[in-house]
């Protein structure tokens, strides 16, 4: 069994989301910040007439949050009530990954990151961390 | 099989529509028994249902419709006159048919609905037994009826076995004098109609005469049939309309973008095309919006029946007037208005309109009038429910609020009667002396209000004791596109719905500093003499205040409160398309949605009601919280002080938190009562104390007196000071104890030594009871909104 993943880079790490959940990847769009929004919500973007919320995973991953004016690529992901857009540094290729390469995250991973990262694929070039998009929203 | 289902589905939709019409027609028929149009309309409806149900093999349904039709034949052929009993029976038939249809809709078959009762009841009426008039009577007659119908599965029309007794009852006598008017008014419930559910006598001819004669015109226009005009209209799926609406919204946005782009380009062709696009998009938008509009009559049409049944149940006589039924509303809004409106109507009959005996005793006509009125006003639809009943007594409301623990006595004392009336919207409030099955369960008005507010509307109540009550619903025309004011704050654009906006006040930088004054920590602006509490949008959004050169106060109305929202700059008035927000952002509670600007930028729509509730002490504040806030600010190191002079150049500082108002009055308004000075102030006699005398000095003669007014609960004291100098911040510096009556010490303010007044001690000289602890501290909280100019 194998599953296709859209890969992208945030900070130094490579992440992946199942290709079925991803509707598109986009370049930078200007974001409208939402004052008083929870940490990790990086504002709203206009996606061909739809208002889509952008999510910055950095704070959850223990990284510094992006500044509002920081340019960033986006991976648009389908969620229960519409779409959200994940801010990423760089979109990579779509990889076909064998399930036997998959391992659940180690117990040493802090709990709040553990919700987000469901596991890792062991690639030759390094690890690909798989994200639970719904958990990212629950932040 | 699918085809059959489609046919059944269509039959259901059509029949439901027809039944609604039938309800109306029957009730109207009762007050206008001789109307041929109504009779034939009713007859046609039942005939259609009977025919189709026979074709679809719904035998129970057919039986009910058949026997009903037989009764109608007699009515149509003049062998029988419409009376209350006949109406009751026919309405029961409608209810039964509706029940069967409901069963067919949910299960696909008609089984399980008890029809024998109704068939028997109608049959008895056919047979001329008008005696058992009670609407719910027939249970004892089940068996004979069942056997009767079983033995005779297809009871032939039975051409009036006893025509004589049916023609006899009173209505016949009334028909002659008023018949003309009845025929004219009855057949058109569309734009206005009136009914009289008779309780004692079948038809009260007096009330029928009350009907305004102006309706003849519209009725003659609509008289033939109020039904769908087959060839010129089609049925459209609601989902399709919603989708169209959404796409038009997108088109409007693209249009905005294109006009923006074309504006920069000097290409004449592009400009022309863009203008044309703009025009077409606007027209298309309007057209699509219209397709979703439905006259409010759509929900009003159920009211005559509700009023009739309820009036009978409550033992009152009610005439229902409906004005403006052709006022249109977006259909999704219409749905949301239905329940609140029905509740208000029920409430008006159950609690509002008195019994005929009571009405007669108070000199009113025995028939109460319930008026539903809808009209457009300022881009909104207003719907009024007015009764001429007993009205709502504020004293009773106050007593109930006290009893339910919703308000304390002190809070109630400080409220105007209008504010007290509005307490009926609090959850858990019901003024019904007796809990009835109609209303009065304490769930009602709060639900009405929250339902209306959830669609961006509002509800108000006005009441005159003894003269009636008016409920007023304000409803936006549509939800998808709304007019809004766009403003800039910091780097971002926000939209304020026009509905809440009253006016704009521009302030340049110089004025910003001077015109905005402070009461305690609160900023206020004098708007034509009245103090307007101010809220800074930056503060609401938790952002640093910019140092913009200018600012604009948007004067906003939310519920019953008015406040000014300070924004950096006003951009434009425009129609915005409302986009929903993700749940996480809705939860923040200050945004109503998002929209796209012409340049494609996303802008947030502010939820003004929520902001008002959040920033102003709302109308349901927690009293404990209030008390805590007040004491916290009193204990705080930095407090604001009102500096006044008190004779001989003495400067005295008064903690601003204790002050309610500042006033200037002519000296001759001072009067003497028993050797004490008093002043008439706001319809009360208020004791006056002179600060200078209290401090052992004396003040000179002035034409005008400067007053510092203190209010606590229902006690008020006016303190005369020589002059009001300024309001300063006490940073807790330089304070030295001075042992003197009425003073706490002295401090250095603005470089000068100022005495700090011991307010409780000073006021005790004028009114020893002023600072007793029983009085809940309400005054310090109301002052922000009440304080008037110096």
Tell me what portion of residues of chain A adopts beta-strand conformation.
Answer: over 45%
Helix percentage range of chain A: under 10%
Q: Which percent range describes the beta-strand content of chain B?
A: 25-35%
Low-confidence segments of chain B, given as residue ranges, are 131-229, 433-443, 618-637, 773-790
Please indicate the count of domains of chain B: 5
Strand order of the largest sheet of chain A: 8-1-2-11-10-9
Count of runs of 4 or more consecutive helical residues of chain A: 2
Counted beta strands of chain A? 11
Main sheet of chain A, how many strands, which sense, barrel? Answer: 6 strands, mixed
Mean pLDDT of chain B: 72
Radius of gyration of chain A: 15 Å
Instruction: Estimate the global geometry of chain B from the Cα principal axes.
Output: flat
* CATH structural architecture of the largest domain in chain B: 2-Layer Sandwich
Pfam families (chain B): CheW, H-kinase_dim, HATPase_c, Hpt
Protein name (chain B): histidine kinase
GO cellular component, one term (chain B): cytoplasm
EC number (chain B): 2.7.13.3
List keywords for this structure.
heterodimer, A: 139 residues, mainly beta, 2 helices, B: 790 residues, alpha+beta, Four Helix Bundle (Hemerythrin (Met), subunit A), Helix Hairpins, Heat Shock Protein 90, 28 helices, 31 strands, flat, disordered C terminus
